[in-house]
Amino acid sequence: MSATASEPAGRFRIRWSARLRLTLLYGTLFFVSGATLLAVTYLLVLQSPASKGTKITTMNASRNPAVQEISAQISYVADRQREEAQRTLLTRSGIALGVMTGVSGGLGWLVAGRVLRPVRVMTERARRISAHNLHERLAMPGPADDELKNLGDTFDGLLARLDAAFDAQRRFVANASHELRTPLTLQRTVIEVALSKPDPDVKALRAVCERALAVGEDQERLIEALLTLASSQSGVFRTEPLDLAEIVTDVLDNLAPTRPEDVALDVGLTAAAAEGNAGLVERLVTNLVANAQRYTPHGGWIRVTTGLQDGAPTVRVVNSGPVVPREAIPSLYQPFQRLGHRSARADGHGLGLSIVAAIASAHRARIVTEQGPEGGLDITVAFPRSRAGLYGAAVP
């Protein structure tokens, strides 16, 4: 053991490791059990008839003083021998107990080291794992019902989730950088082309400004979507009672000017009391309906309903359209994932459903996504039953 820098020279600090504590525990248990066994044995010896002395009745019956004196001497010698035997038993048993306590401590040290060896292996491997090699695993050997192997497997599961989260974050940053760089490049190109003309007229400059303004609006929508995604993933927001039917009504009114005239809208709204952040839930419904409008072809239909399913308030959006492969549905909830073949109007950034998933997760809502009856998607978001203080941390 080496002294720490903050301690005076010559003083040592005992490192109370798990191995040392287990060793002391083993030794203490052995000493206590051994001492108890020794005490019980000693008491049993004291209570035995042989340890209480014997009476020489034949000699005591004689009235001869010489015989009585000899009898007394014999009794005295027997008592001394008995007491000496008891002291010897106690002393040697105590020595044996001390020796075996030391032996048990040594064996306890070895056994504790053996038992804790997997923990040391896990510690050494975990220290080598960083953000650059999260793909590595502890891969502890042993039977399936071993507690230390279960601990290692649990840690491996945590590493797998962290690895997936890091990969998703890296992909998100790369995709976000690309999506943000593309309109900037387009905007710069439009302006440079206009400036490269020797004598541009007012009409050409106006067209360039309108084009740059449209690109800027597209950037604003992208940045707003990114901010909404980040805020919904934080899980900290103000909650309040709300009715999904009222929110859907407002959303449909706001999106009415953008809905194609040749797309039929079927609305069936029933009161569905829930609790959450009204702004985020409205964004969730807006993205669901806007996604349906974007990917519904000409002559198609959209159905929006609210109500209670098994006591849970739900909002459901179904639309017709091209068939979406079942295996591709989970990827639609990843940021910047688009299936461009679904519709000619698929001009979004691929953040709509990822924002829906983030808001639903923040509200502990469950999303069920199926293939639509006539192509498209059938998306149901089921919120938990309304209960005060259910979601996140309330913001004052």
From TrEMBL:
Domain HAMP: start-end pairs: 113-167
EC number: 2.7.13.3
Listed SMART domains: HAMP, HATPase_c, HisKA
Keyword list, A-Z: Kinase, Membrane, Phosphoprotein, Transferase, Transmembrane, Transmembrane helix, Two-component regulatory system
Reaction catalysed by this enzyme: ATP + protein L-histidine = ADP + protein N-phospho-L-histidine
A Pfam match: HisKA
Transmembrane segments: 20-45, 95-116
PROSITE patterns reported for this sequence: HAMP (PS50885), HIS_KIN (PS50109)
Subcellular location: Cell membrane
Lineage top rank: taxon: Bacteria
Designated name of the protein: histidine kinase
Organism: Streptomyces shaanxiensis
